[in-house]
Every structure is written in C-alpha cells, then in structure tokens.
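Hi support team,

I submitted a single chain yesterday and got back a structure, but I'm not sure I'm reading the token output correctly. Could someone confirm the output below corresponds to the sequence I sent? I've pasted both exactly as they appear in my results page.

Thanks,
R.
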Amino acid sequence: MRTFLFTVTLAFGVCFLLTPRVLQLARRVGAIDVAGKEARKVHVHDIPRLGGLAIVAGFYLPIAAVAAMETTVWRYFSEDSRLAVGILFGSAIVALLGIYDDLRGARARHKLVVQLVAAGFVYALGFRVEVIDLPLLPILDLGWLGLPLTLLWIVGVTNAVNLIDGLDGLASGIGLFGLLPVVVLGLVYGDQFAILVGGALVGSLLGFLVFNWHPARIFMGDTGSMFLGFVLAVMTVRTSGKGPAAVSFLTAVLALGVPILDTLLSIVRRAWVGTPIFGADKGHLHHRLIAMGFSHRRVVLILYSVSACFAASGLLLYWSRDARAGLILISTLLVSAALLRWLGYLRAPEGGLRLAAERRRKTVALRRRVRALDGWMKTGPGLDEIAEQAEQLAREAGAAGGRLALAPDGCERTWEWRFAGADVPSAAKSVSLALDGPTADQGLLELRFDDPDESFESRMPALEQAAERLAAAWRQAEPNEGLPHPVSVPGSR
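Hi R., thanks for writing in. Yes, this is the structure output for that exact sequence:
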C-alpha cells in the first residue's frame, strides 16, 4: 500500500505541475480544439488539446523514480523484463501516435496500423488473452485464437476510450474506474507490477482531472485518450488467467463497460444510418444524456456512477465462482438494457423501417456526393460551378431549399434555391456552414430542411466535409466575369 500511495502522489504532483506548462505549449503550437468547428463538439470556447503529454509524463516519471531508487518494487517489476519492456515501449508508441495526431492529424487507417503494431508488440512480450472464463461454464482455452482476440481487445479498447472522450473529465474518470479491478487485485494479492503501473496512471489521471473538470481548461486530446486506452487494455489482459491477481477477461469487459458499450452502439448506429464506422457523430451516450436536458457535470457524474457499478460487478464476478456469478452477470445485463431503453436506443425507428431506409439512402447519397467533390476540386472550378455543386449537395442532403453566399460581408454573389414540391415552414431546421475563402473572405452555405428527423445529425459530418471542399474550391477559383448579382438558381425535384 505504501508503494501505491507513493506512486500515486508522485504521479499526481508531476501531472499537476506539468499540465499548465503543456497548456501554454499547446497554445504556442496551435494544438487547439476549435469550438463549433464540428457539430458533435459541445464546448463553446477554443480549448488546448495536448494535455495527454502531462498524463504521459506523470505515468513515466514515477516509474523512472522507483527504478532510480532501486527499490524492491522495481526489482519485482523488472524481474520479467519482457512485460516491463512491453508496457513501457508499447504505450510509448501509442503516445507518439497521439502527439502526431494532435499536432498534424492522422488518417483513421494510419492510426489503426500503428495501433495494431503496438498491440502485436505487447502480445509478443506476454500481454495476451489466453482463456475466457464464463460463470457456471468450464474455462475455455483459446489457443491460436488468443492472438486475434488480444489484438481486437487492445485496439478496440484504445479506440473506445478515445471515442468516450467527449465531455470535460469523462475519459479521465472512466479510466480511473477501469483501473479499479487492476489496482484492487494488485493490492489484495501483492502484485507489485499492477501496483506500480496502476498507481502511476491513477495519480496522473487525478492530477490532470484538476484542469480537465468542467469547465475544462485543457483536453487530453488523442495523446491522452489513446495512451490511456492502450494502458488500460494491456493491463487488463496481462497474463490473463495466470495467477491470483490476473484480471479475468470478463471482469475486464465489465470494468470497461461504458466505453465498450458506447463503441458497440456507435458501430451499430452508424451502420444503420449509413455513415462511416470510424466517422464522428453526436449520438454517443453523453450526447443522448445532454439532449435529455442533463447538465454537463451531471452527465459526467451519471456515467461515473454507471462505470463504478460495472467495475464493482466485475470484481464481484471475479470472486464468485458459483451460481452467484450468473446472477451478477444477468443483473448487470438487465440494468444495461434498462439504461439503453431509457436513452432511446432500443426503440423502433421513428416512422417505421421504410422511412428509416429512405433516410439511410439520403445519407449514403450524401457521402457519395462528398467523394465526388474530391475529384471535382482538381478541375479548377469557377464560382458558377461551385454554386452548381452546392445545389446538388442540397438535393442529396434532402434539403427543401438553401442559399450560398460567397463573401457575404462584401456583398459579392448569392445563389438561392427552393426545390419544387418542398415545403419550408417557419419552424424548418436551418443549417449554416461557414466557408473560408481567399484572404479574409468568408462564405456561407445555408440549408433548410422541412423534415429534420432523428437521423438528421448523422448527415452533419458529411455536410461539414462537403463545406470544407467547397471552401477549398472557392479559394482556388477565379471570379466569373459578367456574372449578375444576385443569381437565383431555382432548382426542382
């Protein structure tokens, strides 16, 4: 216990002292999460997003201090050098990936490749899912299936924590509850490896949470969320099923129940409405709770409570080897189903399956339009062509009407559409997308919808991507000569 408290205290101090410095660094290098840039963002002010650097430093420096003092804990930690190298270097790979993503931006497929490399590295050094133990059933030895399941677990949890990082303090708290089985079992059975790694991460998260609690002064960014998810995933599968302090796979699944559940729901939801699986939207658990009227802090506390219950259930399941284990598991599943029903996930789609299929068709068509814009941009279009593409975009999005204004402050050119057969009531949903033009010029694409349904938010990421491409085309376009002002493009369905 003394080792754990020492590590937690030192990690807390390091992260607490470094976070303000990292905040200043993020501002200098432009690592800022811009408010309002994407529809799924809920913060209203620009916030630095490189806070994960402080979490990483708070994790490594206490371990380095314990190593320098050559304590008994360090000797135990380094007895199995393979595991020590795995956790220290594997997590460093993911941290470097996160830093690059926060500074420059990385494509989803490139991040996936690096994550798989890091997961394969730690698998080769002994972090593996080798058995699965289910209540009232014999222990299942996975054999060669352990490799794909381990890679899926590590990469999946890494990205699940990244996805849940949508509110101030949420990912940090979820990480603390996810570590609970690792730390508790480490303390109960004297597992110095779990005590040292768990203590370093717990202290670092607590130190960062001081600055990340709502209203947050800094975000952990992908540097922190992917690093946190990777360490959580690796520690929960360390020599799974070997030794009394090893966290069973089912216990690990429950401990990380909130991010896992959120990720599974995201995959199903995006496949249902026709959006990219690895895209972004505003349908996560925390978004649903905010839409129900809960405050930012209350949403975080609700999800903390759910995470604590999941973690406690995982520990109870670990120590229950009789019929009680089945009862715990069934109770957890029933509570989860009730939560999902409350949040509206288990209800029939609004308007029935036929209307849901039509909405999905609109979303898929809109995505095709965005992909077509990539090739069209290379043709060097003029303003007329940009307006035509904007009109087609409005059609594909299912809009009833719209307006494109390029450099509206300078009263340059405006195009307007009202599609035949479309009704635009006064209460119609209006979406405004800013277009950055040449120099300081600003453009605006406004779309109006007469039927903003429950799947409307799924189209927002594609609309935002299309607006970025139209803006890029405008920046390289030459003004059309002799073009009257304003221009009205009536359009028809």
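A quick pointer for reading it: Residues 2-29 form the longest helix (28 residues). Let us know if anything else looks off.

Best,
Support desk
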